[in-house]
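Journal club prep — side note

Before the paper discussion, L.F. wants everyone to see what a predicted structure for a comparable chain looks like in token form. Sequence:
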Amino acid sequence: MNNIIRFIVYIGILVGVLSVLWFVYQPGFSGPMLFDDRANLQAAKLDVLTWASLLDVATHNYSGIFGRGLSSLSFGLTHYFHGEGTFYFKYHNFLIHCLTALALFYLGYRLLLITRYAKNALLIAFISALIWAIHPLNVSTVLYIVQRMAQLSALFTVCALICYVIGRIRIEEGRRFGLLIIVIGYPIFLVLGLLSKENAALCTLYTLIIEGFFLVSSSLNWQGNLCSVGETTSAAKLRNQYRWLVRSCFIIIPLVIGSLGLLYTLDSFVAGYESRPFSLYERLLSQIHILFYYLQLIVFPRLSEYSLYHDDYPIVREFGWGTLVRLSAIFAAIGICILSVVKKKTNVILFGIAWFLVSHAMESTIIPLEMIFEHRNYLALYGISLVLSVFLISTLPNFVNSRGFTYGVTGAICILLLFVLSVRVNTWRTAEQLTLVNVTAHPLSARSHVDRANLLGRYGNGEGMIEHLTIAYELERWNPGAAIHRLSAACVFNRLDRYIIDEAIGAANGAYLTAYTSLAMDNLINNIELEGCAINKQDVFLLLESLDSGIQGDSQQNQARQQFFLARYYQHLGDVENAIMAYDRAITGDQSMTAYPSYKIRFLIGIGMYDKAENDILLLI
């Protein structure tokens, strides 16, 4: 009963701290939409609350493998109840953050109870969850609306692990319903996590290290096939059968299926590097360095290092001594972790390191994603928080025989984290502050300059916008997006110069259609249609031909996108026949894009071709 009371007290304290944390985060709730926020929220608008509209929002997000329908649905519900303002979108992200902190506290507590740290299990679990919750690195997840996908995936992953841990302990203790808790709870939360973001697939690896570090090598007296006092041989056999049934269904089989799936899709991963400024080899080399950079961001919380964008991080193109040392350290850590598991020795510090590495097993390995983002540490951070908590509460007192000193150091660390968190949140209050801080702290980040340029454009500062887009283009000459974006801005602000047009055409020549290039081209066509841009017809066709030369070997979706741009320009010129043919090629090339037939239908109605528009509408239905 005493343990239950202590647990309730710690939960109450953590809830109280999280309530105080609301005041720290609150200034950032009214901050701007960022990067891909607007595109994802636009697709998730929910104007009426019906089953049909809920299903439509949940099934029309095309991010990732599974569509991230649950995340999209959560955006839709926020929009329905609170409108389009950013406050409640970010506030709901904060609430999810708090729930995840509570879930991590409980998971840590249940795991620590079966280790030699059981006496301090509540305190260590509390400190690790607290450090995780208040760490300033998480600002770029909590206040970045679209990262609700990562948050929900993390929350459901932790809930699945809690079900597994509770069930496995009950099986080992010979108590009822252990298998039932795992069989029902684990898959439900896993599916919810996968429908939020694919990172939940790492749940199997998290389960593997929990099994290895705690449930195989636990200090409790339920190892192997030994019977507990008074336990029958048949009960021990049944327990062993349950144990291997769970391991097979939730670890071994998923790992085999996942490995086969990885081999099957390996070619598509390699193909994805064709539109990146780095190869698979260069990405792997860079990620070795980036893992240590992430550790630096966690252990040494310096405001000047934090940013929404880290595209200024140098790509590692050759295997040098620095790479060798870092890679050796990673393999040494993995080897020591494996040795600890083989010897059935519970080591919470090694588990924390393994948790950090597992958290990066998807987004920091072979998938052709952008190099670095802070939100990739959302769950990884907990592993380092746990290591630090064990050191502070159980290791440090062995060297300094003073509890007061230990608590003082712990309190000082928390105060420092809260201070840095508060300062960082305040820089996220307005787009003006955020873009200025990002450009100042990371002057070699093209993304930061593009964000600053967009803000200055909204303020009517065309000269400043073009200046920052020029810097962005110089920083990333492989990506024609900034050059085309600059051309679009020059159109709007009547600052067209020949060199701006020529550099856009030259940059597009032979380049792949990146997401930024596609968006910039879309804006340029919009500006030509709506703003009456003075760019001549020949230059637009040269630009489109330059893009076309780069995407002939690109994906069918990108080729369809280029035909869509061509169709809209023909529409602007009044060339009906070529516009319709280009729209048809776009629709055939990418049937998942409902915008293509929608644009075509509006065009047909606008020119009085009602019968053809009606036929296209029937095809959509």
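L.F.'s comment for the group: Confidence is low (pLDDT under 50) at residues 219-230. Keep this in mind when we get to the figures.
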